[in-house]
Design goal:
GO terms for molecular function: acetate-CoA ligase activity. This protein is α/β, with parallel strands linked by helices and about 650 residues long. The protein has 21 helices and 30 strands. An eight-stranded mixed sheet has the order 12-11-8-6-7-14-15-23, with helices on both faces. Strands 5-4-17-16-18-19-20 form a seven-stranded mixed sheet, with helices on both faces. It starts with a helix and ends in a 5-residue tail after the last helix. Bound molecules: adenosine-5'-triphosphate (ATP) and magnesium ion (MG).
């Protein structure tokens, strides 16, 4: 059987949710946008570019003369920080709150656009004093505090590319990223608050700089006040240097293709890649998609994205998209269960959050903690809910809508990647009749489809590989310092790679997907995670969703383990909901449940109940580590895990022999 047939539609989903009439009537973007973009894709993006303020208006839209190396708006010039900050102040919105900061210990701070302009200007002057120039790289290793956004914008303001590394990555992980980018400066903090206590950040940097000769200074934000080792020759306190700077700084226009940032992918599958994003196209798509998909009304909405700034979601949908659009947003430093499991809902109630953007992993955790927790808070301000990071299981989608969205809010399931820079596939909240678990439709101006092994587009009802068939403004420009890896990773699998004709260049996303009978897209997880059982391709995502649709299961991770008879056998690790208990009967029940939902072929051979799953800092399950366990191997590289003790915990919960 070809993958084309067997990947198809194991999971049936009949539920539909139309947009609320009121929202649809006042939506920023209507169905017309699809038609307009279809008519002339480049004219559509040229129009979206005019959402921004350009110092020199571009006359070119796309230069695809040297594919797959794209240039967008190449003769235009603009300053990203000016677009995210100054222009809102100039337009009379200086008093609007840009960031409602909520610290984990309960401290809070409201920063207006006028204040943000002063902060960013002072930081830009400080970077200049430290010798940072246009074209340099700056590494950022900070907790979720406003200075993280200020630091990124200050870099953008002077044309230095930032490379944000998750606060919490090891010294080794930081060092390899700093070395790869030849960063001149590292911006960090003494520490940050996580799980109710201050955790130190600077020691990792102190260790990392020993092997990073390009680093001239370490700029240190005082967040926790904890004791911090100090090297006078390198270390500089953020408050000391910024306090003495002028609040005046003239932003220099940058070419649209000037590097804005490098961001290393989360490393779910292997060695992190330094993804390079540039200025004009990136900001155009980050701004447009935030406006379209969240229907942002800057005068009245309060937006909250719960991602970490060290993940691309934090770049595009905490810093650049929302600020370019003049949004008021919440920024939260800590974890969702500190000091109690209702913290998120308390924050939504406190600030009257209207737009929430979070990840399936968080939603499944909330399901596990129980429905009664969000029920204690007033969540009636919410009007749109977003999801990103992994396929959202239909049952998690339903829970999100019912228990957080009051059974009324649209959910936008947004598919995109570090590489795409901004959202690519998502429902539009005022247009799309949503299907639980499906990202559904490429956004206006985006071209995506599903192909089989040979690269032929599959018909509706078929499954295979997700590809993007036209360049898009916020696409990665290359892998930092490695054009060949850029070509090999993304363009050689399904692109001709030899012919310069535009249509021959097709971007391979690395994700499996299917098209349902309506042509809507369903993401099936990474291609590497697809299992081959007795000659059938089965997606881990679908088996996980089937498990999560059982009332006792909150979260599931499924892997294919090598099996002598079936090629691969399905092994599942499940976390139970609050009150459920693990026993032999439950395991039989779960196996039968999967067989009923998906068919007997998808019945897991092994199901283990665990209390945690291995995840990256961006909340993605690292299936390769579970595959190591299921196949009885020593567990591989765990450096990008959020919590490196999880693998020991899981192993201790399993019987010694598999
Ligand atoms: P690496 O490429 O180093 O393994 P990563 O892919 O985890 O890291 P990201 O760029 O943060 O790093 O994640 C993008 C991936 O996340 C997508 O390729 C897809 O697998 C998954 N993803 C993101 N959003 C969605 C979504 N809405 N539905 C399904 N999958 C999603
Ligand atoms: Mg990836």
């Amino acid at each position: 059987m070809s993958s084309n047939e067997s990947l198809a539609n194991l999971l049936k989903e009949e539920r539909r949710f139309a947009p609320p009439a009121e929202l649809a009537a006042a939506a920023n973007v209507t169905a017309e946008a699809y038609a307009e973009a279809k008519e002339d894709r480049l004219a559509f993006w040229a129009k979206q570019a005019r959402r921004l303020s350009w110092a020199t208006e571009p006359t070119e839209t796309l230069d695809w003369s040297n594919p797959p190396f794209a240039k967008w708006f190449a003769d235009g010039e603009l300053n990203v920080a000016y677009n995210c900050v100054d222009r809102h102040v100039e337009a009379g919105h200086g008093d609007r709150v840009a960031i409602h900061f909520e610290g984990e210990p309960g401290d809070s701070r409201a920063i207006t656009y006028a204040e943000l302009k002063d902060e960013v200007s002072k930081a830009a002057n400080a970077l200049t004093e430290l010798g940072v120039q246009k074209g340099d790289r700056v590494a950022v290793y900070l907790p979720m505090i406003p200075e993280a956004a200020v630091a990124m914008l200050a870099c953008a303001r002077i044309g230095a590319a930032h490379s944000v590394v998750f606060g919490g990555f090891s010294a080794e992980a930081v060092a390899s990223r700093v070395q790869d980018a030849d960063a001149k400066l590292i911006i960090t903090a003494d520490g940050g608050y996580r799980r109710g206590k201050p955790t130190a950040l600077k020691p990792a940097i102190d260790e990392a700089v020993l092997s990073c000769p390009t680093v001239e200074h370490v700029l240190v934000v005082r967040r926790t006040g904890q004791d911090t080792a100090w090297d006078d020759s390198k270390d500089v306190w953020w408050h000391e240097i910024t306090d003495r700077q002028s609040t005046e700084h003239t932003p220099q226009p940058m070419n649209a293709e000037h590097p804005l940032f490098i961001l290393y992918t989360s490393g779910t599958t292997g060695k992190p890649k330094g993804i390079l994003h540039t200025t004009g196209g990136y900001l155009t798509q980050a701004s447009y998609t935030h406006h379209a998909v969240f229907d942002l009304k800057p005068e009245t909405d309060v937006y909250w994205c719960t991602a970490d700034i060290g993940w691309v979601t934090g770049h595009s949908y905490i810093v650049y998209g929302p600020l370019a659009n003049g949004a008021t947003q919440v920024m939260y430093e800590g974890t969702p269960d500190t000091p109690h499991q209702g913290r998120f809902w308390e924050i939504i109630q406190k600030y009257g959050v209207t737009l929430l953007y979070t990840a399936p992993t968080a939603i499944r955790t909330f399901m596990k903690w129980g429905d009664d927790i969000p029920a204690k808070f007033d969540l009636s301000s919410l009007r749109i809910l977003g999801s990103v990071g992994e396929p959202i299981n239909p049952e998690a989608w339903m829970w999100y809508r019912e228990h957080i969205g009051g059974d009324r809010t649209p959910i936008v399931d947004t598919w995109w990647q570090t590489e795409t820079g901004a959202m690519m596939i998502s429902p539009l909240p005022g247009v799309t009749a949503a299907k639980p678990g499906s990202a559904q439709t490429p956004l206006p101006g985006i071209a995506a489809t599903v192909v089989d092994d040979e690269g032929h587009e599959v018909p509706n009802g078929g499954g295979g590989y997700l590809i993007l068939t036209e360049p898009w403004p916020s696409m990665l420009r290359t892998i930092w310092g490695d054009d060949q890896r850029y070509l090999d990773t993304y363009w050689s699998r399904f692109g001709a790679g030899h012919d310069a004709a535009e249509t021959d260049w097709r971007y391979f996303a690395g994700d499996g997907a299917k098209k349902d009978e309506d042509g809507d897209l369903w993401l099936l997880g990474r291609v590497d995670d697809v299992m081959l059982v007795s000659g059938h391709n089965i997606s881990t995502t679908e088996v996980e969703s089937a498990l999560v649709s059982h009332p006792k299961v909150a979260e599931a991770a499924v892997v294919g383990a090598t099996d002598a008879t079936t090629g691969q056998a399905i092994a599942a690790f499940v976390i139970l909901r609050g009150t459920a208990h693990d026993d032999a009967e439950l395991v039989t029940d779960l196996r039968n449940h999967v067989a009923k939902v998906l068919g007997p072929i998808a019945k897991p051979k092994m199901i283990k109940v665990v209390s945690e799953l291995p995840k990256t800092r961006s909340g993605k399950i690292m299936r390769r580590l579970l595959r190591d366990i299921a196949e009885g191997r020593a567990v591989g590289d765990t450096t990008t895990l959020a919590d490196s003790t999880v693998m020991d915990l899981i192993q201790s919960q399993l019987p010694a022999a598999g």
